[in-house]
Design goal:
alpha/beta; SIR2/SIRT2 'Small Domain'; 2 domains; six-stranded parallel beta sheet; three-stranded antiparallel beta sheet; binds 2'-O-acetyl adenosine-5-diphosphoribose
Length: 235
Amino acid sequence: MDHIVILTGAGISAESGMGTFRDKDGLWTKVNLEDVATPEGFARNPEMVHDFYNQRRAGARTAKPNAAHEALAALSHEHPGKVTLVTQNVDNLHEAGGSQGVIHMHGELLRALCAGCGHQWLWLDDMGLEDTCPACDATGTVRPDVVWFGEMPYHMERIYAELSDASLFVAIGTSGNVYPAAGFVSEARMRGVTTVEVNLERTEASRLFDHHILGPATQSVPRFVSQVLRAEEFQ
Ligand code: OAD
């Protein structure tokens, strides 16, 4: 296992209270995705979109990393090979749990993006239409630095380069519904890479994986990490 590429989704942060998107009580069962997670929704009602992300940002600021985030940080320190951590999550719980160099393909709640000039910077507090971009001085163009539907996820070239060099691909706490991330497992399989799914339960994508570790992330992820570090076979 020279190079482990890990993809995480909302399930890894669920036990930290961040909520998921498509589970029974998931975010997309309560709010309309087109209203709060598309550029068109933001153009239609920016105040509502800011309110939505202000609430999520406040939640992300107070959430604590759990045993799954910490186990992945330990893996990156203790594994003799390379570990690449790609997340679809916009929270910063991997970093809070001790991981470095996390690739946030869907952006970050605690960052801002200027829709006018493209400047990106750290943003911890509430955001609104009155805010000004520090780079171009425009007002009303500041938005959360999260990737919305219809926009290109970040760092795709880097992620495919890492996948092409992987010896193990692991998807943790993701339903495999959103592309391009949902396609990473097929990309890995095509290259003969061993694939492992770590999830609370089987998903629609389970058949694409060679091995499965089931259970809540705070238990299944530490189990996965200890199997890798002890070079145990996966079931
Ligand atoms: P989903 O809500 O689609 O899927 C969450 C997955 O986590 C499901 O497969 C659950 O079975 C699993 N899960 C739930 N609780 C768990 C736990 N305690 N331990 C382990 N697994 C658990 O979330 P994502 O797949 O991350 O994108 O969603 C992908 C993208 O869709 C998100 O990044 C977001 C969303 O729309 C954007 O907003 C662009």
